[in-house]
Automatic annotation (TrEMBL):
Protein name listed in UniProt: Spore coat protein
Cross-referenced SUPFAM superfamilies: Ferritin-like
Keyword line: Capsid protein, Virion
Top-level taxon: Bacteria
Segments of this protein annotated with the region Disordered: 61-99
Domain Rubrerythrin diiron-binding: 18-62
Biased composition (Low complexity): 63-99
A Pfam entry, by short name: Rubrerythrin
């Protein structure tokens, strides 16, 4: 089935593709800059998921309606893996946290990683908000569902980053 998009819908999709490209670029760059191997892997995984989002948006722009059942299965499995990695990261931090805090270099690396995470958390908040606005502008229910699915994954990315920061004592809610 070919989608018939309005000019406004096309522009919103173009905006979202530019956001996804920024996310991909940041996650890839930050994966190479991160000191913690688990954070590197988290960023790499999120970069791959953002690429999937970009591919989906490009398909929509080309008039192709996505199949949510296939998309949900593959991306859902990837997210479960990331939640498992976040849990492993929390366990590893508990085992080696005392050692890392006693080293000045490790503290600086931790601070640098915290800055990368803070920037990505801020980025994910912005991108999720942009999806929230876009969802309400589409007439096709399947497109809205697709964008809603992507937005949920963006929120999961934010949650994963928050959990990483929190488990490493880099983010306090008090």
């Amino acid at each position: 089935m070919t989608l018939q998009l309005t000019q406004k819908e096309k522009q919103l999709l173009k905006d979202q593709t530019s956001h996804e490209k920024v996310c991909i670029q940041k996650y890839q760059q930050y994966a190479s800059k991160a000191e913690d191997p688990q954070l590197k892997q988290l960023f790499r995984s999120y970069a791959q998921q953002e690429q999937t989002h970009l591919d989906t948006l490009n398909s929509l722009l080309n008039g192709q309606a996505p199949s949510m059942s296939q998309q949900g299965q593959s991306q859902g499995q990837g997210q479960q893996g990331m939640q498992s990695q976040a849990g492993q990261s929390q366990q590893a931090n508990g085992q080696s946290g005392a050692q890392a805090t006693s080293l000045t270099g490790a503290a600086q690396a931790s601070q640098a990683d915290a800055m990368l995470c803070s920037d990505m958390l801020m980025t994910e908040k912005y991108v999720s908000g942009a999806y929230d606005t876009a969802i309400f502008e589409f007439t096709d229910a399947n497109v809205r569902q697709t964008l809603n699915h992507i937005q949920k994954e963006e929120q999961q990315h934010g949650e994963g980053i928050y959990n990483y920061l929190s488990s490493h004592g880099m983010y306090s809610t008090q």
